[in-house]
């Protein structure tokens, strides 16, 4: 999930282009429909989405919804794309503000866990979508797979940077670490949402700590110890 390169700021601020009111209203309506669609998909899955169901929820006509999304498939893909954009905002773009290496990798995982904790009562479209479309080839499945691969690529890069910064061992199995971290999230979602087992969030954190400790260098362990000491000090204040 590469970060878009920043463009150089223009020497003189350009006048903002005037957006026709009809276009602006259309964009606002589409955004409102997408928000409602996200809510439906979170509880009912992508397969629960339909033009008719969305029309009922939004109070619009079927033709009105259809004007923004020409088909159910297009609607489902738009929801996947919107979900991914929100995931980036809440997890990725906040986490990459941290220093390269373990601080950034930990922030990515902890923000991920925080999002899952919010989704316990609604649902994760990535996970429910994987169940719905795991054996159903087509554009919706391709969109889901593409988004998850983008996140895995971001995790992969963060782990590689941790190796380059000397925080993880040079021979650390990057793909294995990605697998283990994703496995922790899947277990967390299962135990917290389906089984309603108390303490699942804590167990996910312990799992991350153990994974890092297994692959960490002395420098990496020192970073982790300083983090724990700082956290303990903050709690005592």
TrEMBL record:
Residues 27-87 form the HTH tetR-type domain. Keywords: DNA-binding, Transcription, Transcription regulation. It comes from Pelomonas baiyunensis. Residues 1-24 are annotated as: Disordered. Residues 50-69 bind DNA. Residues 1-21 have a biased composition (Low complexity). Signal peptide: none annotated. This is TetR/AcrR family transcriptional regulator. PANTHER family: HTH-TYPE TRANSCRIPTIONAL REPRESSOR NEMR, TRANSCRIPTIONAL REGULATORY PROTEIN. InterPro entries: Homeodomain-like_sf (IPR009057), HTH_TetR (IPR001647), Tet_transcr_reg_TetR-rel_C_sf (IPR036271), TetR_C (IPR011075). Transmembrane segments: none annotated. The lineage of its organism: Bacteria, Pseudomonadati, Pseudomonadota, Betaproteobacteria, Burkholderiales. It comes from the Bacteria.
């Amino acid at each position: 999930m590469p970060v878009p390169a920043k463009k150089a700021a223009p020497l003189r601020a350009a006048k903002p282009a005037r957006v026709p009111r009809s276009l602006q209203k259309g964009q606002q309506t589409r955004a409102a429909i997408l928000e409602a669609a996200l809510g439906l998909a979170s509880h009912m899955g992508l397969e629960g989405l339909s033009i008719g169901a969305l029309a009922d929820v939004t109070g619009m006509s079927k033709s009105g919804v259809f004007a923004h999304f020409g088909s159910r498939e297009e609607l489902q893909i738009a929801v996947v794309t919107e979900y991914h954009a929100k995931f980036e905002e809440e997890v990725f773009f906040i986490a990459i503000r941290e220093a390269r290496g373990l601080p950034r990798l930990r922030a990515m995982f902890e923000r991920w866990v925080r999002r899952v904790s919010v989704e316990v009562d609604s649902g994760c479209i990535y996970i429910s979508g994987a169940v719905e479309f795991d054996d159903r080839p087509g554009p919706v499945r391709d969109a889901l797979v593409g988004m998850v691969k983008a996140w895995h690529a971001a995790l992969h890069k963060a782990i590689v940077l941790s190796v380059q910064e000397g925080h993880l061992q040079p021979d650390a199995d990057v793909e294995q670490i990605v697998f283990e971290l994703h496995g922790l999230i899947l277990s967390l979602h299962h135990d917290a949402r389906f089984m309603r087992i108390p303490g699942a969030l804590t167990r996910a954190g312990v799992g991350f700590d153990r994974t890092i400790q297994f692959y960490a260098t002395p420098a990496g362990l020192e970073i982790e110890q300083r983090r724990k000491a700082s956290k303990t000090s903050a709690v005592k204040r």
